[in-house]
Predict the 3D structure of the following.
Amino acid sequence: MSLDDLYRHAWAALAPDGFTELDDVAPPRGPDRIFELIDALGLAPGADVLDLACGPGEQALVLAERYAARVIAIDPVVPQLVMARGSATAADRCVCVAAGSMEAIPLASESFTLVWLRDALLHSSDPEATLHGCFRVLRPGGHLLLHTAYATDLLAAHELELLETEMHVQRAALDAKRVDRAVTAAGFEPVHDEALGSELAEHYEQQDGLGSRALLRLARLNRSPGARARLGEERVRAARGLYHWVVFELLGKLSYRTRVLRRPAT
Ligand SMILES: C[S@@+](CC[C@H](N)C(=O)[O-])C[C@H]1O[C@@H](n2cnc3c(N)ncnc32)[C@H](O)[C@@H]1O
């Protein structure tokens, strides 16, 4: 491209009325999309559902309410368990919260109709054991919802290292080919496979400016030498990791994919 062409196009692209067709690309799908995939399974009321790596437990409540399910929610991280227990008690739903990790699921074999593993495989140090465990705890004919992000070729080595150091991300779990092999080796058969890419991050950006906020706060952290001391080293590290994760999603360095997998009926 010539220098003339660069400056003919570049500033116009940044103007509010430039490149507006990009604003009209199909609206990004939001978090409801994942529930729609589960709706299609037609779970019977009272189904046993495992929310694996439940975090603060918001989805465990939705699963209990939307499908009249009996939900067991597990997570190894104490602050997450405290929040999940608090919200389950306050909502008075059929949700039981317990400590446990996804690499060694502390639950009986063949006891669930659905395992919900949303946005957490990234922390698994052993994706093979995690997927094998999901298969083990499912009843024959049961389903696994696997919604997770993978590294793309755009993610540079030092960016992956940053995610590992600041966000406890495990590189094995971001490796799409490795996870594919683990899914197959565990014995799952595919039911549905949808590439969401950056759509969730776009959705949250459009909804409340999450991506711009992450980017702006990274910039402010960089030029505020006192921030680490004022906010606390641990808090700043966690924030940097998360802000980068969101920005990497928007830049296509991380790409989300949602799969519904089935343990064969026989
Ligand atoms: C990004 S949050 C997602 C939480 C929830 N599934 C959601 O979609 O909102 C990732 C969760 O994985 C949990 N986690 C981290 N390491 C884990 C492990 N080894 N086994 C199970 N959960 C783990 C964290 O505590 C955190 O709650």
